[in-house]
Each structure stands twice: as C-alpha cells, then as structure tokens.
Amino acid sequence: MNQNTTPFRVLIIDDEDLARRLTQEFLRSHTDMQIIGECENGLQAVETITSLQPDLIFLDIQMPKLNGFEVLEATGRKEGIIFTTAYDQYALKAFDQHAIDYLLKPYSQQRFDEALNKARKLIGQNNPAIPELLTQANRKTDRLVIRDRGQTVIIPLEQIDYIEAMDDYVHIHYAGKSLLKTQSLSDLEKQLDPAIFVRIHRSTIIRLQALKCLERASKDSYQAVMQVGAQLAVSRSGYDRLKGML
To answer: How many other CB atoms are there within 10 angstroms of residue 49's CB atom?
Structure first.
C-alpha cells in the first residue's frame, strides 16, 4: 500500500473493553498504524466498516448482535483481516488450512507483531480463502445478514419462502417481503441446510415447509405452489429431489 508514507488505517472490533485496550497498546509501537475507530458489537462494526473502509481490521469472532463471520458477510470484506478469537485449537484448524492469520486470546506482543507483519504483506489483496471460510462458518447459521439501503437486515431462515437467482444477485422472498443480495445462488445454497432447503430449478431454491403443493403445469412439467401463492417452475432434477423429500 503506502511505501511508509501513509499510515495504515486500523479498526478494532471486540466486545471486550480490555481486549480493545490491549490491541491499542500493542499497536502503540507501530508508527505505520493509525487507529481510526473501535466497535463493541457486530452491528456497529458493519456500519463503521461501510463508512470508514479501514485498511486493516482486528475482528473478534464471538460478539453480540452479529458475530465476526456475519460482519464480513454483510460488508463483503475479503482482505485486511486479523481475527481475534477465543476459539479452541481444534476449531482454529480451519484458519490454518486457509492461511488466514488469527490471534488466539490471550496473545503476546510477539505473536501480535507476527500477525501484523503478515497483514502488512496482504493488505490490499483480496484473500480468496475468506469466501470459502465464510461458507464453512455460515453453514451452521440460522439466519442471513444482508446490507440493504444503508441498513443491516437479519433474516431468520425459518422466515424464508423461496430464493431466486437474478444475474449476480439472489432475490430472497421472506415474511411477505423481498431483498436482493449480491451472491450467486450456488454459493448461498452451500450455506443452507439441504434437509430444509431444496433446489427445484437452476434458478430457484425453496424452503420445504413453505411449499403448499406440487401441481402439473403441462404433460411433462410441474410447478411448486408456495404457501404465499407463488407458482415456481420445477425442473426434472428438481422434481426428483422434491419427490425424495416429500
């Protein structure tokens, strides 16, 4: 980035005041780092990342309102991240495998400096491992987090009726509302429980409990009639999947 002329702009995100102060203290000796803000919960973090666009983020994983993975999902952030976490060693294998650096609490100044040196080399580069890590982390989620017109929207999965692909977006229909999210349908499908959500067409995923019935649309085709009244085309492979689940 800066060839030692412009400081890296740093955001600290952690729900523990002591942890934020420790990060401040460890950053004190690094004159190329400038702290531009702090956040104590995930919702505040999404707003601040969106408005300030920091170069480097120290991101806690376990936080109230939104966790660290959901913050990244909502902001689309893919670079300049150092995770701070109290996860156990077994859970941290995912980070090792994806070469994303992390600080395991409690950590020393030496370990902090090592992570910072690694981050300096990666700042400004998209890390292709982060989307894969997010997919793994969010596979167990019970909600989707979406940024829409300056607001952070949390959609419980049990409120979703169906999801449609629209170019580079997915159109999520839920609780009588709908939202667009920048994501492919295939990527979103990886986050959903296949026992609850089924892909009925290359462009459509439905929540099984939101299905009212299957109707024949023609001699050789069917449509899914949803509880909300929507009538959705069902492909042959989608029909086979549905038959196996109904």
So the answer is: 22
Pairing between strand 204-207 and 177-182? unpaired
**Among 148, 153, 185, CA closest to 170:** 185
Which of 81-90, 142-151, 224-233 is predicted least confidently? 81-90
Q: Per DSSP, what are the bridge partners of residue 102?
A: 83
State how far Cα 92 lies from the chain centre: 18
pLDDT at 84 over 50: yes
C-beta neighbour count of 54 within 10 angstroms: 22
Q: Do both 14 and 121 map to the same domain?
A: yes
In a domain, 3, yes or no: no
Strand partners for 81: 57
**Is the pLDDT confidence value at 2 over 60?**
no
Structural domain boundaries, residue 116: 8-137
Q: E strand or H helix at 85, and its extent?
A: strand 81-85
Nearest-angstrom CA–CA distance, 142 and 47: 22
pTM: 0.77
Give yes or no: residues 90 and 167 share one domain.
no
One-letter identity of residue 234 = V
Residues 108 and 146 in one domain: no
Angle of CA points 176, 179, 185, to nearest 5°: 115
Rounded Cα gap, residues 169 and 181, in angstroms: 5
Please check whether residues 183 and 241 belong to one and the same domain.
yes
Sign for the pseudo-dihedral over CA of 191, 197, 200, 206: negative
Of 122, 137, 152, at which residue does a domain stop? 137
